[in-house]
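Model it.
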Amino acid sequence: MALGLGCAALVATLLGGAFALRYQDKLHLILGFSAGAVLGVALFDLLPEAVDLARKDYAPPTVTVFVAIGFFAFMFLNRVVLLHPEDEEHAVHGHHRKGTLGAASLSLHSFLDGVGIGLAFKVSTTVGAVVAAAVLAHDFSDGINTVSVILKNRGKGIRALKWLLLDAVAPLLGVASTYLYTLSKVQLGVVLSVFCGFFLYIGASDLLPESHHRHPKVLTGLMNIAGAAVIWLAIHFAAF
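Modeled.
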């Protein structure tokens, strides 16, 4: 099932890239929903599961330290390694190099998304499905970002398509890599807490501001809440 959802992530990334080329005027609504969904997964699913799995060796305050490590590690990558397109403007080399670095970083991020799906399914099918739902929403925006970072740095459509294909395959490879190793429940708890920090940063510092940028705040705010509500409902009913 995890590999199947890895394939779904591939499709979501491709659809995101296609959407970026065709429906740019609706992008804020999609990103708004994605932001709420990603934050919902972090707060309603990953954090509780991480605390539950790691409690044998780590108290809840220690688990939140792992969450913070994930958050600030992702922030560091975002600022220093140019993980997201908006950081491209800080590069010192030409447009071509900036586009390549941004697209390559996004592809690495998509690979880690796939690892997150694979590890979540080792916890339970429910956790895996919920994490996969958030990753699918985020991979849609990753496809959008990959195309955007190439095009805005004077890259041609065919080059953007090549990077989009690489970004689309990356989560499937990430899922497949998790079949090569196993983790204990405590180790899974630590990993999920770190991914919780990742998702908190992605949602709060990337998707939320992007969705509200130069667009009506009320409608996008409602989409934020809708995304989080859908995740909460999915978790709530999955528990029965």
